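User: Here's a chain of 378 residues. Predict its fold as tokens.
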Amino acid sequence: MEVIQNLGQYVLWFLIVLTVVVFIHELGHFAVARLCGVRVEIFSIGFGRELFGHTSRSGTRWKFSLIPLGGYVKFFGDSGVASETNQALAQQMTEAERAVSFHHKALPQRSAIVAAGPIANFLLAMVILTGMFVTVGRPFTPPVVGTVVEDSAAAAAGIQVGDRVVGIDDTEIERFEQIREIVAFSADTSLLLTIERDGETITMTAAPRVSEFTDGMGNVHRIGLLGIGVAGREYVRLMIGPALVAAVEDTYTLVKRTLQGLGQIIVGARSAQELGGPLLIAQMSAERAADGLLPLLEFVVVLSATLGLINLFPIPVLDGGHLFFYTIEAVRGRPLGERAQEYGYFVGLAMVLSLMVFATVNDLTRPAVIQFFTDLIG
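Assistant: Prediction complete.
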């Protein structure tokens, strides 16, 4: 009975986190579609058979479905959840029906509706970060060196305890976190450091050394390591304006670093084993919830921004794939043929399913994930 109760709690947190992120994503599509005068027939959290739902006055069926891994919005004129055109219905539409059909809207309107989902995910991340920065504070670590590891890249370069790093290459440094972000992606790359020491400004070069470590999730990371530690950490509360600016900056940095990481996986500089799937998300959701509200919200920020980014990839069946087709339509002056789009959606679906299977297999090979679920049921 205790095993079932514990498993239920972890599943519950997983569903809560995923539902919030997916709901906001689909709500972005829904809101802009309604602004453009499109009739929305279904707003679903999950796929497959409906579990329960409600039909609003506008005719939209709001529902929860059996398979809770995602969601979709079905517009009038769609033939499926991937927003393919229902050709038979399109030929029989009246003028009034065409006026509320997604596929009969102008190209800029269709593009805005599709892009609204990922944008909503980025906005969710920014809203959560803004609230955290106003109420709790923004994590702030002065870029002052507290420790220098012996025989490290920092020691070899001549960095000393008490040095304040004010610049790396062309980047102005205000927080120690910026040093970590730059160094992590600069293994074996010579960096020009600008340092303030005893009232003087000096420059020196240092090349972060390659370091591999395994995190609590069982992921093996290959990063650059300079060999310095912080002198202290604090939280600084911000007013709403600066908090919003900081939230935008942090979301942008998160997206940029995610793209850099994916790029390094593609070129082989990082292991593809770092890609995580639904089991890893379930584990992290439960663990962050156990750590408290703040870690859980931080995880929602990462997951939401990552979902928004992935959905912008130019892969058919994803939002980015639709936007890619719309770009071709704008260039050609007419949409791609129906057969070409069908082939594109088939290839895109195969790619997405293959990635999901690969990520899930990765999850099943992570010692931490296996141990987590073994402890849960054992």
